[in-house]
Amino acid sequence: MMALEGLRVLDLTRVLAGPYATMILADLGADVVKIELPGVGDDSRGFGPYTNGESAYFMSLNRNKRSMTLNLKSPRGKQIFRELVPLFDVLVENYRPGTLDKLGLGYEVLHDLNPRLIYAASSGFGRTGPYSRRPAYDAVVQAMGGLMSITGQENGEPTRVGTSIGDITAGLFTVIGILSALRVRESTGQGQVVDVAMLDCQVAILENAIARYAVTEEIPRPQGNRHPSIVPFEPFDTQDGQLMVAAGNDGLWVRLCNALGRSDLATNPRFETNPLRNTHYSELRPILAEIFRNNTTAVWQTLLENAGIPVSPINNVAQVMQHPQVLAREMLVRLAHPVAGEMTVPGIPVKLSDTPGALRMPAPTLGQHTEALLGELLGYTPDQVAEFYAEDAL
Amino acid sequence: MMALEGLRVLDLTRVLAGPYATMILADLGADVVKIELPGVGDDSRGFGPYTNGESAYFMSLNRNKRSMTLNLKSPRGKQIFRELVPLFDVLVENYRPGTLDKLGLGYEVLHDLNPRLIYAASSGFGRTGPYSRRPAYDAVVQAMGGLMSITGQENGEPTRVGTSIGDITAGLFTVIGILSALRVRESTGQGQVVDVAMLDCQVAILENAIARYAVTEEIPRPQGNRHPSIVPFEPFDTQDGQLMVAAGNDGLWVRLCNALGRSDLATNPRFETNPLRNTHYSELRPILAEIFRNNTTAVWQTLLENAGIPVSPINNVAQVMQHPQVLAREMLVRLAHPVAGEMTVPGIPVKLSDTPGALRMPAPTLGQHTEALLGELLGYTPDQVAEFYAEDAL
Description:
The structure is a homodimer of 394-residue chains. Chain A has 394 residues and is of the alpha/beta class. Chain A folds into two domains: 8-206 and 325-390, Rossmann fold; 233-319, 2-Layer Sandwich (formyl-coa transferase, domain 3), CATH 3.30.1540.10. Chain A has helices at 17-27, 56-61, 75-84, 99-102, 107-113, 138-144, 165-188, 198-206, 208-216, 250-259, 263-267, 274-279, 281-293, 297-306, 317-320, 324-328, 370-378, 382-390, and strands at 8-11, 31-36, 50-51, 54-55, 65-69, 90-93, 118-123, 193-197, 233-237, 242-246, 311-313, 332-337, 341-346, 351-352. Chain A has a six-stranded parallel beta sheet with strand order 5-2-1-6-7-8, with helices on both faces. Chain A has a three-stranded antiparallel beta sheet with strand order 9-10-11, with helices on one face. A two-stranded antiparallel ribbon of chain A has the order 3-4. In chain A, helix 1 (17-27) links the parallel strand 1 (8-11) and strand 2. In chain A, helix 1 (17-27) packs across helix 7 (165-188). The interface between A and B is large, with 145 and 144 residues. Strand 8 (193-197) of chain A pairs antiparallel with strand 14 of chain B.
């Protein structure tokens, strides 16, 4: 049994924030039916790179889902959609607010069709407020929400996070909203709207930067890779790369000095406590930098790991994919795609001891399950399905 | 009614990943009882800046929770803890794996005391694998998990994300695990272990970088602020700052040119399609850069927003805190703290239409609710509580 087994999700999402949310639901066992535009599908099917014509981007986000095409602008497409809605627990969409209303398929209509339906909408700015109807992209939201302003090298340019963290955090909060609303439904029998905005999520993940500014009125700047108040807690260049060294307290500092063969530093009264190491940072940093330059990343890593110091090389993606802990945790999974062949995708970070999630199937080709789903869910015959295709409803 | 009302959470977490998870649960209505070390409390009570001696960091992450002190190393402390466990639905901890086992309070013991208990553990590397027992910090996990290697200016240094995204994503996935496990318990009556590792979460949020590398074998590098394949989709310097401009498709490109008063660019055959704009990027970029330098961020922002182009200044935290959409969405909330006074904290990004979350109370002072909770939950009298204090159990 999987945790979300039996949960039926009608998935109208595209690109990233929405598909990330429904991927998590699917990974934990939900039955996710992805509705796609006939002929085109999820926009991300058009994002490279490709393997045998299939988008790697799309495949990594849409495993464990089934795909059916449906033209929501055609009368027949709308009719089929209305027939589907009562069969599902959750609908997820990440259109700009108002898009489904224009199609006559807004929340009120859907709620009338299925009062138990949880309607989850993930958008750039949310369903309310002056920016609600505006278009957004991850880069715009990262710029607007402050995250870029605190990311970057010290005194350097504001920097966009290299993964689409605006979309991803919206996806995560959307899942939390859906699961919370499901809990409510257990007692009330009623669905509701889950409204998650990428911009709101950016504010939520600023966490202490907001409290810090509110208290000090100092505007937080790009912080670089050095901890603002702990020393040493930063990367050092080695003979062949960089090593992140995080001596988070005075005990670790002593252990670090001993492991580096420099117990004299540990007993040097100028470096004895973290406040002192902060004060004498410009003296201490070059001493440590010189030591680390004398050997390779791998040598220092082994030495310091064995001494119990939290350290890590700054791994690139290739190195991450060979990391023993990542592999031991099954955080990389190979799936066999019918067109693309063998494909590596991230595993499931929510590890449940008794009802673990599973990667059951690769991402679907466009409309791969249209006929099967229309038969299974609504009892339509292959002849009827052929008619719907002829009507451009599928 | 709030979505998670009635859910009782025993919170052993400290610093960030765990407290972030229990904050979300508390914001959505759960009754979170934070267990803290007598005299010291959550380590983050010691993180500055302070207001009237109260840590802003701690206050921003622990609103909506009640605090009781408990010394888990004393026999009486252990006894009280064992009496508490049967009263709770969820226990959350973010110790290094093995820490509670050493205290004789590992999962097996707790499961025997309360088979319905969901035991959620968030740690650096998870409860399994060769790195399981190692210490971790956000910076180490960002370095190890690949995120730093894809964040930074083009051809620049790998860069740490300016918020502790390693902790925060672990907190979010932990909440998802807890809510999923609660759904299982509805049918089985049994709790289970939710095991979330910061490193796993880093891999999970790399999303398409993994698929991209798996397909192309090109190692992803720091991407800078420019979109890897869409033009223009990057910040431009203005007279007084920077504006992020995201013309995500050819239609937006035409609108952008017209809004800039340069419809000639839209019809220039060298720039007509996105592939062409990529090819002629080194010609196009200076033309656009020159245009944007001619006016202020605010002027361009208004002009381009009115033309429907996704744009944003790169806001700093002070600007975010005045942003009309952020305010309209109640993403900044003022709480009155009994010691610190008025305090601004981030709002709740999960907006539920029928059972919204709420900021009900400020972060607790250390042990603020010890006596009240021991009375309410276990029926201990003030005299008994005084005895427990005398025994150093509280």
